Amino acid sequence: MKFTDEELIVVEKLEILKNEAGSHSPGIFTFRQKLPELEIKIDACFLSNPYATDLFIEYFNKEILETGKIRDLLECYPSQNGVIAEILADFLDINAKNIFIGNGAIEIIQAVIHNFTEKKIMINIPTFSSYYEYVKEGVEVVYNELSKKEDYSLDIANYIAKVKFHRPDTIVLINPNNPNGAYTRVSDVQRILDELWFVKNIIIDESFIHFAYESKNYQLVSMANLVEDNPNLIVIKSMSKDFGVAGIRAGYGIMKKEYVQTLLSNGYLWNSNGLAEYFFRLYARSDFAMRYDILRVRYIIETLEFIKELRQLPYIKVYPSMANFVLIELTNGILASEFVAKLLITYGIYIRICDDKIGLEGQFIRLASRSRSENNYIIESLKSCLEMNSVLDMVNETVV
């Protein structure tokens, strides 16, 4: 990638921001504060369904802002954890005592890992870094390294054998996985539950499950209803991705009643804000659910089209995904950090660099699907950027 002297200054600032953010990416508000000279046109780094955000805003404007009920959300205390769980119970067809409400899924991940993992945890890599970052001192971490030759998908037989060998008290399966979007079918997850019955905690993170499907009509799949029959199963669900409401900080976990009670007794009784409670109440309503599901399917179809177009671009490998993002390997010698910087500076597209993802071999980026018009702009920008780099390579070779 070729940068002007002015652009190189921005590149250096970007690197500093990323280092400060650690294993996560700096948010839009951070960019506006630290790099006001940059105009971000499309946020394709953070993963959310923009159509669902639009739907939530429609309801919020009509029911909260236009009616003046925003005062209630600001002035009144929100309900306690157990009350919000009751709101979700009928909608999810889950006993309320099995539901734990979190200030985002990240809080649930931390609470579960800190309170219930005792000696050893097995984590697939590459994956969401918080699962190994939140492990307490003294707990052994065993990594199950997914194979690049198999597109970082999970080999079920090998995985089960490895768990039986290491005998961890906790295992983690993100489904679909982050950052590659690989999906493990319900039958394979059931096999894991059946054969690994001895594992104390089987955590299944379904934060991207609304984008996965096993039928032609894109019917939603989930393992949440199996918790009652599998007391070692813990299902964690973020609402940020599929409903496009990351700023609200809303998530829930489904686990055995004893675990829920333990968490409620140790500091998580009153951990939601009024806006999050409004969202959960809206989420459980049939009118909202019906309209949301139409948008969910529309978004899946458009994402599939987006991935198909990405695969036509030169100099990249697009890994199979059943999420709302794709893992992309740069195959023409470009450094991922430079590629991300170029897209941001020149085209205003913010994407995720994957240099900090342990378990990846090569130069990788993660790209989120957005609306159809935004995806079209992303495709054209990627194409221009890749072709520009190819021309520069040819010029350099000629000069040499």
UniProtKB/TrEMBL annotation:
Q: What is its EC number?
A: 2.6.1.-
What InterPro entries does the entry give? Aminotransferase_I/II_large, NHTrfase_class1_PyrdxlP-BS, PyrdxlP-dep_Trfase, PyrdxlP-dep_Trfase_major, PyrdxlP-dep_Trfase_small
Entry annotated with the keyword GTP-binding = no
Instruction: Give the required cofactors.
Output: pyridoxal 5'-phosphate
What highest taxon heads this organism's lineage? Bacteria
All copies of the Aminotransferase class I/classII large domain together span 65-380
Molecular function terms in GO for this entry?
A: pyridoxal phosphate binding; transaminase activity
A matching Pfam family: Aminotran_1_2
EC class (word): transferase
Alphabetized UniProt keyword annotations: Aminotransferase, Pyridoxal phosphate, Transferase
Q: Does the keyword Transport apply?
A: no
| Homology family | Belongs to the class-I pyridoxal-phosphate-dependent aminotransferase family.
Q: What is this protein called?
A: Aminotransferase
> Lineage from the top down?
Bacteria, Pseudomonadati, Bacteroidota, Sphingobacteriia, Sphingobacteriales
